[in-house]
Amino acid sequence: MTGVTSGDARPRVALSTLLAQGTELVIEHDGHDYLLRLTSNGKLLLTK
Predict the structure, then answer these.
(1) Closest CA to 15 of 6, 3, 5, 7
(2) Which InterPro entries does this entry report, sorted A to Z (predicted)?
(3) Fewest C-beta atoms under 10 Å: which of 24, 25, 31, 35?
(4) Which of 13, 46, 16, 11 is nearest to 29 (CA)?
(5) Residue 45: pLDDT above 90?
(6) Structure confidence at residue 8 (pLDDT)
(7) Which residues of 10-46 are buried (b: 16+ CB within 10 A; e: fewer)?
(8) Alpha-carbon distance 22 to 10, whole Å?
(9) Cα–Cα distance between 31 and 7 in angstroms, integer?
(10) Average pLDDT over residues 5-15
């Protein structure tokens, strides 16, 4: 991961970096796929 931290030890990644190819991203976790989607209202939605 790349990014800048501002007094926080957690990695920070811009959403525009994650969604560079569109408005959806599949996240794989513990053998399951999750869909992270940017809605038309600018909200993030995570579904299984």
Answers:
(1) 3
(2) Hemin_uptake_protein_HemP (IPR019600)
(3) 31
(4) 46
(5) yes
(6) 81
(7) eeeeeeeeeeeeeeebeeeeeeeeeebebeeeeeeee
(8) 25
(9) 33
(10) 84
